[in-house]
Amino acid sequence: MSDRRSHESFSPCAAVLLAALLSSSVATAATHQPNYTPRVIAKSAANTSFNGTPNTMMYTVTATVDDTFDDLSHQGVVGFTTETGCGGTVHYTWSPDTQIFNRKPTRTWTLYNFQPGVAYYYAVRTGVAGSYQYSCGTLGTPTLPTALEDLGLVVDNSSGAYATKYVMFDTDDCAGRNYVLAVDADTGNIVWYLDTEAITGVFGAEINGWRFQPRGTRFVSSDRMLLTIDVDAEHRRELLYEVELDGTVVNAKDFNQPDGGTTHACDGSDGSAGPCPHHDAFKSDRTGKTWVIVSEASGTGIKGNPFWTSDVCTAPPYEFLTDGFQMLERDYTESFTQFLAPDLGYDPSVDGGPAAPSRCAATGDWSATLDPDVSWLDWFHVNTIAPSPWSVRRPLDPELESDHSRARRRQQHRSRVEAFGRPRVQRLRQDSDRPWCRGRGDVRGPARRAFRRR
Question: Is residue 190 part of a domain?
Answer without folding.
Answer: no
